[in-house]
Amino acid sequence: MLLGTKTGVLRVWLQKSLCYGMIFLWLILLSLENVMAEGQSKFSIDFFSQVAPITMTDDLAVTLGAMEKGAVFVYNYEDAVKLAGHSCLAVSGAYRLTQIALKSLYGEQIPVRGEIEVTFRGAVDDKVNGPISQVVSYITGAAAENGFKGFGGKKFRRYNLLRFDKKSTPPAGALCSVHFKRVDTGKSVEVTYSNSMLPPLPDMQEKVRIVLMDEVKNMFVITEN
């Protein structure tokens, strides 16, 4: 009888201990989650994190010691949103057309940041060339007159790799048309972006999702040069 009583007491004690332990563990995990959240951007759109990333190498980062040889920069759509301060059809189109161009230029190779010339049809203030070019520049490293001039004016130069051809215009109905060229091989491709075929949805972010994640005919037209 005494043994049974002790066993019952021990069982109750173990159950309570387990319960208290689970509560304590939950509080720790909740605390860690809050701490991590304080150092991260909180977006209200779930699909942002599901967009395919863009991976780049950057020899300048390796040379100056920011990264080890073989390491890569990983750009996500969320990074483009943070750069622009919002998510819209221009920002999403810029991200996607850059992704498409790099895939066409490098195939299965990892693209090299700072080794790509970018030329927009039209002036910087034509339509949304300006905002789109900021995203393209951020990912590719191509810069305008404010870019790094390189060591000795040549090595790792980003200066003037981003240009705007005022004498040229995108095809009728297109939002923008961008020419990408590899500095090392001369291989080039032009990507023309149009979004007039998007359905008249009231939700802007659903349109953004389509631009980023769906295959819509003639939205991105690729011309290899």
Structure description:
This protein is α+β, with helices and mostly antiparallel strands. The chain has one domain (52-224). The chain contains six helices and seven strands, in the order αβαβααβαβββαβ. The chain has a five-stranded mixed beta sheet with strand order 4-3-5-6-7, covered by helices on one side. Helix 4 (89-106) runs parallel beside helix 6. The protein is globular and about 75 Å long.
What number of structural domains do the residues give? 1
Q: Return the average pLDDT rounded to an integer.
A: 88
Task: Report the major sheet.
Answer: 5 strands, mixed
Low-confidence stretches: none
Helix content: 40-55%
- What is the N-to-C succession of helices and strands? HEHEHHEHEEEHE
Structural class from helices and strands?
alpha+beta
Strand content of the residues, in percent? 15-25%
Distance between the termini: 92 Å
Shape: globular
Number of separate helices: 6
Please list the strands of the largest sheet in the order they lie side by side. 4-3-5-6-7
Radius of gyration: 25 Å
**How many strands?**
7
